[in-house]
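Sorry to interrupt, but I need a hand with the structure work. I would like you to pick a protein and set down its sequence and fold. Please put the record directly below this note.
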Amino acid sequence: MFGYYLDLALHSLKRNKVLTALMVLALALGIGATITTLTVLRLLSGDPLPQKSAQLFYPQVDPYPENRPFSRSGTKLPWLMSYVDAMNLLRAGKAQRQTAVALAQVKVKPRTTEGKPFYADGVMTTADFFPMFDAPFQYGAGWSAADDDRRVQVAVISGFLNDKLYGGANSVGRMIRVEDRDFRIIGVLKSWAPQPRFYALHLGSRNYGKGEGVFMPLQAARADGIGPSMMMSYGSGSSMEHLETSPAIWLGVWLELPDASAVSAYRLFLADYARQQVALGRFQKSRTALSGLMAWLRGEHVVPDDARLQAGLAFGFLLICVVNTVGLLLAKCLRRSREIGVRRALGAGRGAIFAQFMVEAAIVGVAGGVLGLVFAELGLWGIRHQPAQYASLAHLDLAMFLFTFVVALAASLVAGLLPAWRACAVAPAPQLKAL
């Protein structure tokens, strides 16, 4: 029977081409706007490390004095840590893994006579960074904790920087010149750029993008005079040259805690550490926080408010398009009252009439989904040409491609319910008398 209903629906749609085109266009516009905004929202609010996000935590302490709080309200904890506090937490070794991170804009000079220097995003970090964040290697590996302590001048570079400098070849063992210092390459990453770049939050760089080009041991980079992109002072005497002892915050610290008991134990340790610093006179407040990765991103409002607003407006527009489609389908149904009456008189039941009209609505939905995909791609193309951090990442993936047709079918079937019910209610006798 489905084939029969399909044939009837196609015949009906072809008979009223203008009305059919209006219905498809109305649905396509709503679907295109909805899929465009949902794709952007999904990109901005996605889990950057779904396989490990539940095990990653961000600790915070408050070294700011009482008379000079970090925030105007005095309730918000500082985003970053001083070098002293970050190293104290790392050396305590209370987490399964722990790393300190700072970002830097560094000058890279190719090791060729014709190569011109250029600036790249750099990361100053510690050995656990790569295993903690599941950074995949194409060649080589990261450095060790012993390399951190010995301030060994080694580096890991990204795949796109390796392509630019070495044509994608295995560059492990070669030298790269960073800020007039030679670093030996020991590893090359595969394509790796978590979105959003959670570890870069508040460190003076973009939250979205293709990732950093060069990764260096924190202590070795600082010994060579490489400074962080972000530094905030909470006391007098801060200087870029003496960041390790200055009253300044410039490091983000991340922890890997495998289970709930480890999280509880670390919260107690962090509270004890803050109270100890108060007793030593370094802190005036013992406030601390330990946030999971996704809670940290939500708390810092990484997703722009206008992205959520645009998604809501797009759904509202889709609702308007569905209502318009209901009106068009209803008008089409009323024009076919005599045809419905004849079918009912020939023995077609209410269920058969309802099924026929729902199949017709589904065809409109599929056609609207196809055209909606075209509109969505045009919308994403426009976003990719905007000066936004995430612009280059706005692409339709397989999940959103399939979701487009789910939305299209759902919208069209909802739109077809009232016309199909109205068609079932047509009495055959009056329609036959009018023939």
Observations:
- Residues 53-299 form one domain.
